[in-house]
Design brief:
alpha/beta, Rossmann fold
Length: 279
């Protein structure tokens, strides 16, 4: 599958500009089409308050929404123009909850570009949450960190491999990026042994599969009980100067991850580079 149709979820956060830029440069690399989706959350008030709301206040609300929408559209239009995508772009404004809107429209895209949730954000302003969207949209997510800029995505890629269905799905979804990458490193952290494990040479099988697609790939693994597996991956990202991490999402239930912790939750909280994840 080629990445010919990208959807980027745009919001009012400070991180939106870097996210749009990341999506636009990926669309330009893949000669794809990019759609910017700006969900507007209607202000919901109790009926008795709504009935008494002065017309001046309603006008102020409309004016604020129009102003924020125009700012977001300008960011999108600028990124599209700089990346030569003016004739391969679309801007959509949709009223509704951001996660629901992104899930619906994301089903008609090859990949959905969404932002990591900033823990310091205004909780009264809903955003599209990747931990919900990865279940709802049925498409891979490219989650862009809320801090930093990412001028290059997919040149040096780390694949987190554990032999799971979710990891296999992520590798397949990322194949157009992996085949074009300058270097791909497959890493297994604390790989399982035995018949249900991933072999005597962890990562070798998936590396062979990737090499048959023309990927410049190598496999490695590490066994440690001194460092959290998530930190091990992020350390490797830094050591290898990777600009993208590919991984499966929620190999066990979301409830178990919330209670016990897990790799997906850890990465959504601590990512330092964009993460392409699939469920």
């Amino acid at each position: 599958m080629a990445l010919k149709d990208l959807l980027v979820v745009v919001d009012d956060t400070d991180a939106a500009a870097a996210r749009i830029d990341a999506a636009a440069q990926l669309a330009a690399r893949t000669d794809g089409h990019i759609t910017g989706l700006y969900p507007v959350v209607p202000l919901t008030l109790p009926g008795y308050v709504e009935a008494e709301l002065p017309d001046e206040v309603r006008a102020m609300q409309r004016g604020y929404t129009e102003s924020q929408t125009a700012k977001a559209e300008a960011l999108f239009a600028d990124a599209v123009r700089r990346n030569g995508l003016t004739d391969r772009s679309e801007w959509r404004v949709l009223y509704g909850h951001p996660t629901d809107s992104a899930a619906l429209h994301g089903r008609y895209a090859d990949v959905v570009v969404v932002g990591q949730a900033d823990p310091h954000r205004d909780r009264d302003r809903p955003i599209a949450l990747p931990q919900d969207l990865v279940f709802e949209c049925g498409r891979p997510l490219l989650v862009v960190p809320y801090a930093g800029t990412f001028p290059h995505i997919g040149e040096r890629v780390l694949v987190a491999w554990n032999g799971s269905r979710e990891a296999a799905r992520a590798v397949a979804d990322a194949m157009p990026i992996l085949t074009a990458a300058k270097r791909v490193v497959v890493m297994a952290v604390n790989p399982k042994a035995g018949p249900a494990g991933i072999g005597d040479e962890p990562g070798a099988d998936i590396a062979k599969h990737l090499s048959r697609h023309g990927c410049r790939v190598e496999a490695t693994h590490i066994v440690t009980d001194q460092i959290d597996p998530g930190d091990t991956l992020l350390n490797t990202v830094a050591d290898e100067s990777c600009d993208l991490l590919v991984m499966g999402a929620y190999g066990r239930s979301r409830l178990r991850e919330q209670v016990l912790g897990g790799m997906t939750r850890y990465m959504l909280e601590h990512m330092t580079v964009p993460v392409l994840m699939s469920h």
